[in-house]
Design goal:
Order of helices and strands: EEEEEEHEEEHHHE
Helix content: 10-25%
Number of domains: 2
CATH superfamily of the largest domain: Nucleoside Triphosphate Pyrophosphohydrolase
Shape: globular
Number of helices: 4
Radius of gyration: 18 Å
Largest sheet: 6 strands, mixed
CATH architecture of the largest domain: Alpha-Beta Complex
Structural class: alpha+beta
Number of strands: 10
Distance between the termini: 34 Å
């Protein structure tokens, strides 16, 4: 985090209002460290030292969504807000840009993994993550998510470890797919 004075951390952030041609908006539901009620935010996050708004937005959307091929529109909103995040008090100045994307429909049954960098820092390859989660994720997504978090903790992770596994289509276990590559391969 860039600067701190009397416990207040100041930072810049970049966020995207991601819209489909049908005007669907993508939001992320998160919880502050330590629990509490969840809330909805636009994808994006804090800038790294020396990063421009555009560079930070591209990095954040790649990290959070795997989205790398997009045109960021002009800034449509700026805000400055102060909030608590765990033990820290953060004063954040954000810029919001519109990003137009095509709607994606999965072609068949499977499992969607949503995870934070606290997990993929320790297993960055999709095949490796699939090897850790499958095939159990198809019938026990919660147990598989817990196993992924345990893996990251045992690999040295200490914070920002999030894993959510969602079988699709909703309400039905996914059909087993081909055997994934061995974790770490």
């Amino acid at each position: 985090m860039p600067t701190s004075e009397a416990g207040l951390v100041h930072r810049q952030a970049a966020r995207a209002l991601i819209l489909t041609p049908d005007h669907h908006l993508l939001l992320c539901r998160i919880h502050a460290p330590g629990g509490g009620p969840g809330f909805w935010i636009a994808p994006g996050g804090g800038l790294e030292p020396g990063e421009t708004q555009d560079e930070g937005l591209r990095r954040e959307l790649q990290e959070e969504l795997g989205l790398s091929d997009f045109e960021a529109g002009p800034v449509v909103w700026r805000r400055h807000h102060t909030f608590d995040w765990g033990e820290r008090r953060i004063s954040q100045k954000e810029e919001y840009r519109v990003v137009h994307v095509e709607r994606f429909e999965p072609p068949g049954a499977g499992v969607l993994l949503l995870c934070s960098d606290g997990l993929w820092n320790y297993q960055p390859e999709a095949a490796g993550l699939a090897g850790l989660a499958m095939p159990a994720a198809q019938t026990d997504p919660l147990g598989s998510a817990q196993a992924l978090v345990k893996f990251a903790i045992e690999a040295g992770g200490r914070d920002n470890i999030t894993a959510v596994l969602i079988p699709f289509p909703p309400g039905t276990p996914a059909e087993p797919g081909p055997e994934p590559a061995e974790a770490g391969a």
